[in-house]
Amino acid sequence: MPSLLAVSLLARTAITAATMALTMHVVLGLHMSYVAAGAVTAALTTGLTLGGPLLGRMTDRWGLRTVLPVTVVAQAVFWLGMPTLPYGALLGAVFPAGLLMVPVQQVTRQAIAAMTTAEQRRSAFALESVQGELSYMVGPAVVILCAAQAPTDVVAWGLGAAIVAGGAGIALLDPPLRAEHEAKSGAAGRLPRREWLGSGMKAVLTMAFGTAALLSGVDLAVVAVLEESDQVSRAAVVVAVLGVTSVVGGLIYGALSRSLPTWLLLGLLGLVTVPAGLAHDWPWLCAAVVGIGLLAAPTLSAVADAVTRMAPTGVRGEATGLQSAAQSAGFALGSPIVGVAINSSVPAGGFATAGLAGFTAAIIGCALSRRCSSSLPLPSPHHSSPNGSAARSGDT
């Protein structure tokens, strides 16, 4: 587990920084507008969103040793040739590159589910969410610093090398994606999607989308509030506080003796986000985002835990891919939605909109979970079901 988390952290940090690297290359290397850069990053995000379920399904069917080499080679080819491409070719190549991105998050989550007991899983997913927070804190910042000191070609090659090294490292580790007691049931055949993609799973995916949209909107709202008070230079400090407190929150949640429902965590996250915009000076805003940070990683880890518990063994890859797709869509749509709210009201409205989006997703998730609970009795969350999953809508 330590080796897997270390290698996946390298790859996740590089993947998180990919959109920033592409933006820097288009703006600084090709000397084009931010609109052009936005089109490239949108194509990458679309590929990532669609690629998650696709690669997850491929992993379920053909295994990790087939999928990882294909994605590693695809990333090596793209990042090696990317600096030489004209803009039109780059715009066409970035979508398949996103579609065939090394599935680090999905593989890590499947391996955690396979390598841990039900009692250990919450703590393991808390560490995985902390890993995600670290990647978001480090990756884009490193790319910006490197782009200021070196040509964007070199930055792109370095980023590609990190992605390839991370994917190759995971391939060499070859972590198990199914526990020993799950292997036999997983080989029995795939369940039709209608049998496992029910109300409970839809509830978790809705909350995955809502969490990502909220967090994406918060980043934009921080900049908008500080820009209004001519303190935008302090945005990095506020974002750093948000990241550090999220890491702390993830570690605290992992040490708890019991899990909390995902809808409750997301609902609380939404409620503490709404009033944060009332703080207009950066020190007060730092204090206001502490509550957001403390609940961010626990909510993300609860989502990942619920997905792997509810997904039958034979489709766990596709389920984790759907989770990644929901979060990618949330991150992609959260900022525009909050941006519209800011432009049509006041900067503080950005926090309110982000918080309400998360709270609404929590309400929908809670309703869908209760509908699933009332229609289908489920086993105890501390015992695996015959198909290898511990699908419990009560955990959502």
Walk me through what this model shows.
The chain has 396 residues and is an all-alpha fold. The protein folds into 2 domains: 2-177, MFS general substrate transporter like domains (Growth Hormone, Chain: A, Up-down Bundle), CATH 1.20.1250; 193-376 and 384-395, Up-down Bundle (Growth Hormone, Chain: A), CATH 1.20.1250. The chain is built from 16 helices and no strands. It has helices at 2-16, 18-29, 34-62, 64-81, 87-99, 104-115, 118-149, 152-173, 180-186, 193-196, 199-228, 235-255, 262-273, 282-310, 316-344, 348-375. Helix 1 (2-16) packs across helix 7, helix 3 (34-62) runs antiparallel to helix 4 (64-81) and helix 3 (34-62) runs parallel beside helix 5. 55% of the residues are buried. This is MFS transporter. It comes from Streptomyces citrinus.
The largest β sheet comes out as: none
What oligomeric state is this?
single chain
Number of spatially distinct domains: 2
Within CATH, the superfamily of the largest domain carries the name MFS general substrate transporter like domains
Low-confidence stretches: 376-395
Looking at the overall shape, the CATH architecture of the largest domain is: Up-down Bundle
DSSP, total strands: 0
Protein structure class: mainly alpha
Terminal Cα separation, in Å? Answer: 25 Å
Give the percentage of residues in beta strands: under 5%
* Helix percent band: over 70%
- Shape, per Cα inertia axes: globular
Q: Which H/E pattern describes the elements?
A: HHHHHHHHHHHHHHHH
Gyration radius, rounded: 20 Å
Number of helices: 16
CATH class of the largest domain: Mainly Alpha
CATH topology title of the largest domain: Growth Hormone, Chain: A
Average pLDDT taken over every residue: 85
